[in-house]
Amino acid sequence: MNMPALFGRLAAARSGAALIEFAIGLPVVLTAGLWAAELTNYAITNQRLSQIALALADNASRVGNFTGTGVTQLREVDINDVLLAAKQQGAPFDLTTNGRIILSSLEASGSTQRIHWQRCIGAMRGADYDSHYGRTVVSSMSNAYDANSAYDPKAGINTLTSGDDSAQHPGSPAPDGMGEINAQVKAPDNSGVMFVEINYRYTPLVGDGWFTRSKVLRSVASFVVRDNRDYTQVYNPITTPPTNRSTCDFYPA
Q1: How many Cα atoms within 13 Å fall on the side-chain side of residue 128?
Q2: Largest CA distance in the chain
Q3: Gap between the Cα atoms of 7 and 16, Å rounded
Q4: What pLDDT, on a 0 to 100 scale, did the predictor assign at position 207?
Q5: Residues 101, 102, 103, CA angle at the centre, nearest 5°?
Q6: Is residue 239 pLDDT above 90, yes or no?
Q7: How far apart are CA 213 and CA 47, in angstroms?
Q8: Among 177, 100, 189, which Cα is nearest to 134's?
Q9: What is the C-alpha to C-alpha distance for residues 200 and 250, in angstroms, rounded to an integer?
């Protein structure tokens, strides 16, 4: 066999050029495509969380039972309804299975900002998923930012079957309001703000660590209460079956 001639013919051959170019270019194109898909999914997930937070804050600022005296009473069933709506909005990406939603009533009485009550839904728990901007706490000596005080599920609740002791569960002071530093929101005087925080565990489309790792995404939103709301308590009229409170010591998906 004439080796020089064989190598000469091989060097001059062009029949496999397209296949070789495809083999070289495919990994680059595939990697770019997967990266674009991951980036798009990440952006869409953030946008969905933002929209759900806004919708929940907006809905919570409107609901309630009009008493006919010009005052609206917020009931546990109203809160459960708006939380369920947020759950349904997040169902396509398992929001409440892989995340946590916290709804807080930030209220102002004179110059005092206070988190009066909080309600939650979502199975995830721990420092990444519980409220980052304040809680209702048991200790009357602590404010809402005290991470060492226990959560108070009775805040804003009348625990008596006759009479009213809701004033004994006033929530916790939040002098700086709620939200990120330098971006806190505060309630107007003698009014309230519905503050929503969503924490969600994002799982990448293409393997954990290829383009990004699993991480906790956070979205917040707030709306001023739209009506003349009764801020003394969250009402819970006797119903059959009774309405459960979605307090933040439970972790339902």
Answers
A1: 11
A2: 108
A3: 15
A4: 73
A5: 120
A6: no
A7: 19
A8: 177
A9: 17
